[in-house]
């Protein structure tokens, strides 16, 4: 579900925020956390825990409006209620040529102290035009 | 004196998803417009390869004797281009407005399938309004 939202959301984000192409993945992550979350959820997130190659980071949300008034019942204790957000980010980044994997590390609904999403860049897939396939 | 002759929107793979003509000249039937759109998509791609500098994002403006063609490509690969009278100003701004209308009325329409031809009434209505407003501003100068 989140993936389908993400593929459409990215165009709206680009149209409304007027940002130019990001130079590297770090900038992309900052954009998502500062501009994207602010635009669509009204909260700012912070980016931390960059790994050595700069392809994996965590986005930490202090406050998550999706879970206001939400409590997980006993029958759903294993549920990732906010997983839609990981689909949205994955879908949006796929439309701008980046294959990523997004998972929840910490989730307040399951007892942690904050919301932490891990975004990992798997690969960049720029548009390739098949000019050379007759060789 | 219509300043804009026609507007095209092409999806990522080069297929025409929207075509609207405004002028009385240069009207095309569906097949021709599809052909022209794919041609433009290929030319746009080739121009990126031809560019002597890296990081070229394709053709933005084509000036000919009797018309200008302004093209805007979003970072997601969707192209918006408008064929207009030579010397028409502010077409980039108009293309940006069309992009915003696209995100608001086409992408948010739950019945719209991605990459398919656009058949959204609200988009048509708002687009006509935007073009009209642009025309009024131009005539007023």
TrEMBL record, chain A:
Subcellular localization, as worded in the UniProt entry: Endoplasmic reticulum; Golgi apparatus, cis-Golgi network
UniProt key word Endoplasmic reticulum: yes
GO CC term, one of those recorded: Golgi apparatus
GO BP annotation list: Golgi vesicle transport
Signal peptide extent: none
InterPro entries, alphabetized: Bet3, NO_sig/Golgi_transp_ligand-bd, TRAPP_component
Keywords, sorted A to Z: Endoplasmic reticulum, ER-Golgi transport, Golgi apparatus, Transport
Taxonomic superkingdom: Eukaryota
Keyword Lyase (UniProt): no
UniProt record similarity statement: Belongs to the TRAPP small subunits family. BET3 subfamily.
Protein name: Trafficking protein particle complex subunit
Annotated organism of origin: Gossypium tomentosum (Hawaiian cotton)
Automatic annotation (TrEMBL), chain B:
Origin superkingdom: Eukaryota
SUPFAM superfamilies (UniProt xref): SNARE-like
Subcellular location: Endoplasmic reticulum; Golgi apparatus, cis-Golgi network; Golgi apparatus
InterPro entries found in the cross-reference section: Longin-like_dom_sf (IPR011012), TRAPPC (IPR007233)
Pfam families named in the record: Sybindin (PF04099)
Predominant cellular place of this UniProt entry's protein: endoplasmic reticulum
A GO cellular component annotation in the UniProt record: Golgi apparatus
Any Gene Ontology biological process: endoplasmic reticulum to Golgi vesicle-mediated transport
Keyword Metal-binding in annotation: no
Alphabetic keyword roster: Endoplasmic reticulum, ER-Golgi transport, Golgi apparatus, Transport
Listed SMART domains: Sybindin
Subunit comment: Part of the multisubunit transport protein particle (TRAPP) complex.
Similarity annotation: Belongs to the TRAPP small subunits family. TRAPPC4 subfamily.
PANTHER family with a match to the protein in the record: TRAFFICKING PROTEIN PARTICLE COMPLEX SUBUNIT, TRAFFICKING PROTEIN PARTICLE COMPLEX SUBUNIT 4
Stated name of the protein: Trafficking protein particle complex subunit
Species: Gossypium australe
């Amino acid at each position: 579900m989140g993936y389908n939202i993400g593929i459409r959301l990215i165009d709206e984000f680009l149209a409304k925020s007027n940002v130019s192409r990001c130079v590297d993945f770090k900038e992309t992550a900052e954009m998502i956390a500062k501009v994207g979350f602010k635009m669509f959820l009204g909260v700012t997130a912070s980016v931390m825990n960059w790994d050595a190659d700069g392809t994996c980071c965590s986005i930490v949300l202090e406050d998550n409006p999706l879970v206001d008034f939400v409590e997980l019942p006993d029958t759903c204790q294993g549920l990732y209620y906010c997983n839609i957000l990981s689909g949205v980010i994955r879908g949006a980044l796929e439309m701008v040529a980046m294959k990523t994997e997004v998972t929840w590390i910490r989730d307040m609904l399951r007892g942690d102290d904050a919301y932490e999403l891990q975004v990992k860049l798997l690969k960049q897939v720029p548009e390739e035009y098949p000019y050379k396939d007759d060789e | 004196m219509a300043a804009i002759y026609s507007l095209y929107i092409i999806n990522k793979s080069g297929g025409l998803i929207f075509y609207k003509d405004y002028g009385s000249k240069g009207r095309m039937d569906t097949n021709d417009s599809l052909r022209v759109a794919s041609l433009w998509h290929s030319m746009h791609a080739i121009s990126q390869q031809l560019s002597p500098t890296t990081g070229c994002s394709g053709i933005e403006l084509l000036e000919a004797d009797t018309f200008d063609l302004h093209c805007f490509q979003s970072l997601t690969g969707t192209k918006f281009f408008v064929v207009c009278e030579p010397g028409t100003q502010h077409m980039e701004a108009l293309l940006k407005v069309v992009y915003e209308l696209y995100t608001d009325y086409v992408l948010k329409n739950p019945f719209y399938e991605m990459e398919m031809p656009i058949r959204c009434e609200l988009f048509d209505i708002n687009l006509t309004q935007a073009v009209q407003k642009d025309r009024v501003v131009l005539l007023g100068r």
